[in-house]
């Protein structure tokens, strides 16, 4: 009788890996990055190009044009627009770029657990020797890596136009500090969406809507709080710790960075705790 040799399956393999990503089959972190590489590339390029485009407008800005900025917009960083750092703090890092980071975190975080649970893939994945906490941490690490990549592209874009756009008064350290805070902001909302999905088992759309909605609400609160004479409300929003310390002018504020990092860690820890106790059966 002829015996056919079989190759034993690797216990640490991640199901669903094929093609160029097969070499990552023992790493949830690597597979998550591989599966999301196209989406991440689009987010990074779109955010970098947006920052570059608005940053490049600075030489065309005059004191008169800045004087015509509505008073309601002063809370979004336009209180010192004539200077290069002030202009970037408002037009670039105070408006669309932080919203892009917020939506990246909410959208990507909603895919980390919720999308797999909704499709039924999570049951297949956890049938292998993959712990729930390990899965969550690897997925979140991949999300964080994406946030760092987006911030790095924005940083490189700003340095690329620094001389031609007359932004030389902003130091490389200032741009670096702002990029770090941008990565932390995206990571925080990624932690919110990832933790929410892990804790509740809600659909991807619900998790994204909740996280993005909270992001927009706190963004508006941070911007409009001065108009209602309630500046203290800004301290309740993540955007205060993202840009309130004016990192373009003063460099990295360790206290602000620590608060953003700690908040993300708490959200992930809470989500992991609940995920390990929750019945995933539907």
UniProtKB/TrEMBL annotation:
One Pfam entry name: ABC2_membrane_2
Q: Does the keyword DNA-binding apply?
A: no
Please list every transmembrane segment annotated in the UniProt record, as residue ranges.
39-61, 81-104, 140-161, 167-193, 205-225, 257-275
* Keywords assigned by UniProt, alphabetized: Membrane, Transmembrane, Transmembrane helix
Keyword Ion transport carried by entry: no
Query: What name goes with this protein?
Result: ABC transporter permease subunit
């Amino acid at each position: 009788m002829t015996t056919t040799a079989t190759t034993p399956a690797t216990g640490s393999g991640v199901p669903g890996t094929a093609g160029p990503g097969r070499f990552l089959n023992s790493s949830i972190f690597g597979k998550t990055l591989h599966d999301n590489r196209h989406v991440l590339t689009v987010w990074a390029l779109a955010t970098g190009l947006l920052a570059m485009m608005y940053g490049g407008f600075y030489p065309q800005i005059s004191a008169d044009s800045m004087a015509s900025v509505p008073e309601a917009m002063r809370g979004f960083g336009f209180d010192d627009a004539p200077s290069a750092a002030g202009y970037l703090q408002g037009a670039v890092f105070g408006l669309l770029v932080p919203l892009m980071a917020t939506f990246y975190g909410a959208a990507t975080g909603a895919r980390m657990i919720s999308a797999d649970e909704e499709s039924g893939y999570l049951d297949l994945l956890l049938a292998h020797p993959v712990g729930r906490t390990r899965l969550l941490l690897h997925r979140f690490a991949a999300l964080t890596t994406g946030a760092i990549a987006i911030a790095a592209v924005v940083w490189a874009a700003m340095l690329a136009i620094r001389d031609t756009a007359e932004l030389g008064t902003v130091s490389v350290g200032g741009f670096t500090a702002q990029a770090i805070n941008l990565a932390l902001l995206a990571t925080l909302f990624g932690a919110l969406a990832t933790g929410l999905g892990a804790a509740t088992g809600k659909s991807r759309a619900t998790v994204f809507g909740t996280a993005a909605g909270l992001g927009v609400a706190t963004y508006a609160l941070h911007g409009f709080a001065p108009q209602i004479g309630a500046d203290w409300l800004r301290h309740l929003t993540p955007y205060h710790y993202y840009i309130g310390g004016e990192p373009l002018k003063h460099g990295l504020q360790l206290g602000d960075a620590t608060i953003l990092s700690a908040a993300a860690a708490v959200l992930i820890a809470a989500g992991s705790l609940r995920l390990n106790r929750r019945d995933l059966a539907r």
